[in-house]
């Protein structure tokens, strides 16, 4: 199933995202007693920070992963985990640090990517030849059509062997990052994009024109056996009819 919702205000966005997360978490917890969610960084952090404290869900059963992460210490303002930690831990919610599966920045970049992949496999009780199935990945998009740390025309778009990969030449700072690859992302039960702001409008127009001439990484997100949800604000959707 693919759906598109265009929202008028931040309150409406938070409500829509809350509905999706609540629905998916209830179903996963009912079926498997655990909910696995992957979060992105950037502008999404503020929305997730408003959604999670309002959710009716069993937060204890959550495992939170990162769709991509900047390879910096968590005290650095670029750290996605660091941003979530400041708004979700320290008493704002009942979430605990152990529920976050995060990268180890004490290792080298490549070892950290391998270590993060192994941790994910362990959390899902998967062997190396099985691809974990996340219940929900919440994704963003940059004005250049990148998602996670998968950038236009980058070699990582052709990575089929790894579930997690390192990038040390990111066109958007910081240079070093760790990201889910397309194989892992497209195996999720649901990929939900949250895209806001006028700077994304041209890329959105081209993505929805389904033109084969343009190749944005977001166009490669097609869950094999799952749902694809687009939540856009009116600014990002301004060229859509
Ligand atoms: O660098 C990143 O950018 C994308 C998009 O961020 P936004 O601020 O334009 O929404 C984000 O989804 C990704 O996680 C992040 O590392």
UniProtKB/TrEMBL annotation:
Lineage: Eukaryota, Metazoa, Ecdysozoa, Arthropoda, Hexapoda
Record Pfam families: Glucosamine_iso
Reactions catalysed: 6-phospho-D-glucono-1,5-lactone + H2O = 6-phospho-D-gluconate + H(+)
One GO BP: pentose-phosphate shunt
Name this protein carries in UniProt: 6-phosphogluconolactonase
InterPro entries with a match to the protein in the record: 6-phosphogluconolactonase_DevB (IPR005900), 6PGL (IPR039104), Glc/Gal-6P_isomerase (IPR006148), NagB/RpiA_transferase-like (IPR037171)
Superkingdom of the source species: Eukaryota
Organism: Glossina brevipalpis
Gene3D superfamilies tied to this protein: 3.40.50.1360
Role played: Hydrolysis of 6-phosphogluconolactone to 6-phosphogluconate.
Enzyme Commission identifier(s): 3.1.1.31
């Amino acid at each position: 199933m693919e759906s598109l919702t265009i929202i008028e205000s931040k309150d409406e966005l938070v409500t829509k995202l809350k509905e999706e997360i609540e629905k998916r978490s209830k179903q996963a917890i009912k079926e498997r007693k655990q909910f696995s969610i992957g979060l992105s960084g950037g502008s999404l952090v503020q929305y997730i920070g408003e959604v999670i404290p309002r959710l009716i869900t069993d937060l204890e059963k959550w495992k939170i992963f990162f769709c991509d992460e900047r390879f910096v210490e968590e005290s650095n303002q670029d750290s996605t985990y660091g941003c979530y930690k400041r708004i979700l831990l320290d008493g704002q919610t009942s979430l605990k640090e152990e529920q976050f599966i995060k990268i180890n920045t004490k290792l080298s970049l490549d070892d950290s990517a391998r270590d993060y992949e192994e941790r994910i496999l362990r959390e899902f009780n998967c062997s190396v030849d099985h691809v974990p199935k996340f219940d929900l990945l919440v994704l963003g998009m940059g004005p250049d059509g990148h998602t996670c740390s998968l950038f236009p025309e980058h070699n990582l778009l052709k990575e089929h062997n790894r579930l997690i990969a390192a990038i040390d030449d990111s066109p958007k700072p910081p240079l070093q990052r760790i990201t889910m690859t397309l194989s892992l992302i497209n195996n999720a039960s649901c990929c939900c994009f949250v895209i806001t702001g006028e700077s994304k409008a041209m890329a959105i127009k081209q993505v929805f024109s389904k033109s084969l001439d343009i190749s944005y990484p977001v166009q490669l997100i097609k869950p094999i056996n799952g749902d694809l949800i687009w939540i856009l604000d009116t600014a990002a959707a301004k060229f859509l009819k």
